[in-house]
Design a protein that fits this description.
Strand order of the largest sheet: 5-2-3-6
Distance between the termini: 71 Å
Shape: elongated
Oligomer: single chain
Strand content: 5-15%
CATH topology of the largest domain: Rossmann fold
Number of strands: 17
Largest sheet: 4 strands, mixed
Radius of gyration: 29 Å
Number of domains: 4
CATH class of the largest domain: Alpha Beta
Structural class: alpha/beta
Length: 571
């Protein structure tokens, strides 16, 4: 909270010396850098770097022995505490019934800040108030376990006011072994008026940061003062501070949703980021020029790639696809324009399974996936509804998409699917239902294959097993798993417009994912998303260590091994 308020800087300007008493915070204070994590502020610095920092600060050689580093700083902090007039702490929880403040800490510094000076100031926020002490302890248990892995912290202080004694003539005198005055300051700053208070459920454990692909690359640049990562941008946006959210990297989030999976409070930061972007659009706050161009392209050309819509159907020329049918193939913008061969493969595979797909050709519109994530809610819904009208006009009962972004975007509006009587499936779902193992022959030369879960397929639609079952049929065995897969899968880096506006960031995230595949021993990464396929290929450059392939490509190779006819029977 003090970091959100920039309290230390303001006090220093007023001539008041401020000393951080947490070791990590003190190291960061001396280094003049940003904290890297709420519970490990200096975790980005090595002990050798800290040794150099302390040697310069104390003007004498300080070894890089952690015990020595701890000792010298403990002694310095103790000297400052003994002279301090005021101790300032935060609060982990406020028990309303008992009127008690609960503070959790490991180093013992908070106790000294609360007990040794003459005045103790507690700076906190309204959302820290809980009904009673039992609930306050529950909050601290959760924070401790998620932050440190320990069942309970080294210290838990419960403070109800100044210390006192009644040992002299039974008269109460305050400040016997502690401060004579305890002051609690609640900082609102838009919190109570916020219509969306979900961001305030954050307990500051930092779990989301450990799984955030963007934060892993750019660090504290993503986030706001006192609140790192996407939750920082979301918190600012929920309080109407859109400019602060934009400065905090509002549009650098890939909206992969990994943070939601690991959050103990189940804060939906992904949803909050998209909502904040929508608010920014309503307030006419401009995003990046790349995003503005992308949105304009979807409006004008029905695709994000700034090309005439008719080009989306070039891949289907010569395939003699009908425009009407019960099963309709929706190739999508990215597959049509970036991977036209993949679109052709889907048609060939569907025909091999005895299914003749229809296709809208140049009448196929954009599903609105990316623009919705960029905050253009009305445009996204308009595009989705137009698609459903087209599906109904084509007599489709089932629509099969290549891109999980398309199926996710269209299924984002279940009322539309119900109204128009259309079921939207990703191709992996469709193949899982229609591909029989007897049709497949294990593809040769694919000894070490792993599957990369696209965020729009897995976390957005809960489709984890379907693509793996299809891949297992084509390979003759289950794919190997990377360390982060399924619900904990790492992002490829290209989602939510990041690839368009921040190509370097997207590629850095992609390289991290490729490194995970190599660590698992994989030579081939199979995915089922054109955005993932593009970024995972491009991030490696020309000298690719790992081959990246589409799921349908592997399936077609497997079917060709058995010589399956278009009727779905063996030759």
């Amino acid at each position: 909270m003090t970091k959100e308020l920039h309290l230390a800087e303001h006090l220093e300007k007023s001539g008041i010396k401020v000393i951080e008493t947490d070791l990590g915070d003190r190291i960061v204070q001396l280094a003049g850098c940003e904290a890297a994590h709420p519970t490990g502020p200096a975790c980005h610095l090595t002990r050798h770097q800290i040794s150099e920092l302390f040697t310069k600060h104390f003007e004498k050689k300080v070894s890089d022995d952690p015990m020595e580093l701890t000792r010298v700083m403990r002694e310095e902090i103790a000297s400052y505490i003994s002279k301090a007039k005021v101790g300032i702490t935060g609060a982990n929880a406020i028990a309303a019934c008992e009127g008690a403040v609960v503070i959790v800490h490991n180093e013992g510094n908070a106790s000294k800040c609360a007990m040794l000076p003459d005045k103790h100031i507690i700076i906190t926020t309204p959302e820290k108030v809980v009904p009673n002490l039992d609930e306050a302890v529950n909050v601290t248990k959760l924070q401790t376990y998620l932050s440190t892995g320990k069942i309970i912290s080294s210290y838990i202080n419960v403070i109800t006011g100044p210390s006192y004694t009644a040992d002299i003539e039974k008269q109460v005198y305050k400040g016997m072994h502690g401060p004579k005055e305890v002051v609690i300051i609640f900082v609102d700053d838009g919190r109570l008026e916020a219509a969306d208070k979900e961001a305030q459920y954050c307990i500051g454990c930092g779990m989301c940061l450990l799984h955030c692909p963007t934060y892993n690359v750019i660090g504290p640049v993503f986030g706001t003062s006192g609140h790192m990562g996407g939750i920082g941008a979301y918190l600012e946006g929920s309080r109407g501070r859109i400019d602060e959210a934009l400065k905090g990297g509002l549009f650098t989030c890939t909206s992969c949703g990994a943070c939601v999976e690991v959050c103990p409070s189940r804060v939906d930061t992904k949803k909050g980021i998209i909502s904040t972007r929508a608010t920014a659009k309503k307030l006419k706050k401009r995003g990046t020029k790349e995003h503005e161009s992308l949105i304009a392209s979807v409006k004008n050309y029905d695709n994000p790639w700034q090309v005439p819509r008719r080009q989306k159907s070039k891949w289907s020329q010569g395939l003699r696809l009908k425009k009407k049918g019960a099963v309709l193939y929706f190739a999508g913008c990215s597959t049509s324009l970036l991977f036209p061969e993949s679109a052709k493969r889907v048609v060939r595979v569907m025909r091999a399974l005895g299914i003749e797909p229809a296709h809208l050709a140049q009448d196929e519109r954009c599903c609105g996936s990316t623009v919705r994530k960029l905050g253009e809610e009305l445009l996204a819904r308009e595009k989705a509804e137009s698609c459903f009208k087209d599906f109904k006009g084509a007599g489709a009962k089932t629509v099969v998409t290549s891109c999980p972004g398309c199926s996710s975007a269209l299924n984002h509006y279940p009322e539309l699917a119900k109204r128009y009587g259309v079921k939207v499936q990703h191709v992996s779902q469709f193949l899982d239902e229609h591909l029989d193992k007897s049709m497949c022959e294990p593809v040769k030369g694919f000894e070490s294959v792993t599957f990369h879960d696209p965020c729009d397929l897995g976390r957005a639609q809960d489709l984890y097993e379907e693509p793996r079952r299809v891949l297992a049929k084509a390979l003759g065995r289950a794919p190997i798993e990377m360390e982060l897969s399924r619900t904990n899968s790492a992002c490829c880096g290209s989602g939510s417009g990041v690839k368009s506006a921040y190509a370097g960031l997207a590629e850095a995230i992609g390289r991290d994912r490729i490194a995970m595949a190599k660590a698992a021993g994989a030579k081939v990464v199979v995915t089922s998303c054109p955005w993932c396929e593009q970024n995972l290929r491009e991030c490696q450059g020309e000298a690719a260590d790992v081959t990246v392939m589409d799921l349908v490509d592997v399936v077609e190779r497997s079917l060709s091994e058995t010589g399956v006819r278009r009727s779905g029977k063996r030759r």
